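Exercise 7. Given the encoded structure of a 445-residue chain, write a plausible sequence.
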């Protein structure tokens, strides 16, 4: 019987192994499989040519993604907008299709992220499918033109920083202030949301911002408060500044839309989704609380016990919408400093304490001079929640304050769950999945 040399058999085995390895590598390198609408081949070609990963393929059978015309539903977490009116969607049967095509869902998600990234936007701009600049009117009434895409954002204004995250542009923040992230718990939560946080949060205070600090981080745009005094000097070095001022319901929705307009079509769609969600919650709450006759008297305190929110501030809107009467509604301006005698005279039945500064529930309850306040006597003093952004401030998260506060003032009346809405909100708008324990702790009263 003729026997082949052992060395020859080993050689054949090596060839087989190498061939198998090449096939496996080919499968691993397979790009996203995309069903492309007939009139969108140009959009797909631009993105596919620019994509740095395994090249996506236009297919009819077994797609993991669909490129088509349409809009994004409020609760849809599987779709991004690449140009106005054109969406890229992970398909419902993506897992099975991906397995059959050798391209994982991870690759589909990666192509989606690229399509709405500054690099993806840059490719679409180069092809004339997106504008090279946008012009907006900010909340200071100023017309500002911003070159596209915005890849680097500096946000000295701590409240506006969260607008960028909610519209899906948090990864473009290169330096920012983060109100609510100055304590260990808030900092840890922000680091879970954005692991880059420790390296981007070392920014000087809003009021101390200057040209030198901005120039160092080389932003494409800067977010500022309407009360900022350094705007002109920063604009003088060629950096556009967008002013925000969101102390009302209408101003907050306007701020979201303004932020969305700066970061491309997907950010604009996410802003509209948030506005729809916010309006839905406000309408559901007000439909119930708006017809109540007996409303509790509510005092909203600030960073110390005798600093109180004015009637012009966003906190007073939240109190009114949730079915309370703000005892400081007659005060104007911003935070007001008052005496204890005035607080006692207002006879608040509920006292709210913010989750920032040195304020605490214990400090109010343990103050002997406050024992004549009905809320203190009855133990009705509550700390407003925060994950990072304080819920009482004009930030995207404040929609949850309305759910929470309505439950505080009128338990069980509206039928919304703070735990459930918090889980939805942070997943949809921050891309962060709250654990049940985390959501329960967050909503506790």
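Solution.
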């Amino acid at each position: 019987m003729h026997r082949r040399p052992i060395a020859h058999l080993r050689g054949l085995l090596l060839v087989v192994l190498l061939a198998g390895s090449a096939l496996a590598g080919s499968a691993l390198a397979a790009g996203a499989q995309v069903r492309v609408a007939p009139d969108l081949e140009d959009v797909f070609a631009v993105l596919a040519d620019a994509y740095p990963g395994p090249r996506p393929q236009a297919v009819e059978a077994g797609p993991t993604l669909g490129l088509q015309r349409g809009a994004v539903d409020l609760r849809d977490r599987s779709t991004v907008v690449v140009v106005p009116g054109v969406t890229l969607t992970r398909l419902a049967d993506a897992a099975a299709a991906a397995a059959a095509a050798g391209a994982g869902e991870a690759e589909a998600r990666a192509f989606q992220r690229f399509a709405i990234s500054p690099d993806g936007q840059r490719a679409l701009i180069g092809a004339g499918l997106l504008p090279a600049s946008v012009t907006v009117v900010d909340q200071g009434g100023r017309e500002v033109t911003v070159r596209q895409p915005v890849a680097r954002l500096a946000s000295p204004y701590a409240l506006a920083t969260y607008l960028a995250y909610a519209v899906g542009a948090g990864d473009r923040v290169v330096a920012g202030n983060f109100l609510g992230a100055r304590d260990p718990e808030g900092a840890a939560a922000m680091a879970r949301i954005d692991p880059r946080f420790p390296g981007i949060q070392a920014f000087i205070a809003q009021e101390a911002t200057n040209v030198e600090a901005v120039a160092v981080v080389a932003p494409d745009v800067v977010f500022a408060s309407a009360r900022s005094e350094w705007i002109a000097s920063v604009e003088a070095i060629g950096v556009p500044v967008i002013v925000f001022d969101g102390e009302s319901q209408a101003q907050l929705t306007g701020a979201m839309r303004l932020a969305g307009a700066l970061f491309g079509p997907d950010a604009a769609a996410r802003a509209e989704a948030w506005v729809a969600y916010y309006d839905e919650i406000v309408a559901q709450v007000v439909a119930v609380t708006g017809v109540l006759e007996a409303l509790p008297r509510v005092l909203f305190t600030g960073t110390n016990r005798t600093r109180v929110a004015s009637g012009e501030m966003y906190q007073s809107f939240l109190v009114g919408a949730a079915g309370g009467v703000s005892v400081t509604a007659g005060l104007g301006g911003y935070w007001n400093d008052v005496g204890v005698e005035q607080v006692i005279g207002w006879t608040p039945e509920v006292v709210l304490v913010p989750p920032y500064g040195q304020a605490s529930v214990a400090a109010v309850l343990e103050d002997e001079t406050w024992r004549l306040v009905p809320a203190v006597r009855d133990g009705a003093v509550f700390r407003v929640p925060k994950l990072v952004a304080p819920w009482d401030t004009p930030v995207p998260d404040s929609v949850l304050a309305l759910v929470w506060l309505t439950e505080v003032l009128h338990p069980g009346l509206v039928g919304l769950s703070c735990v459930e809405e918090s889980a939805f909100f942070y997943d949809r708008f921050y891309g962060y999945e709250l654990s049940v324990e985390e959501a329960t702790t967050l909503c506790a009263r």
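Remark. The first strand starts at residue 33 and ends at 36. Students should compare their own answers with the one above.
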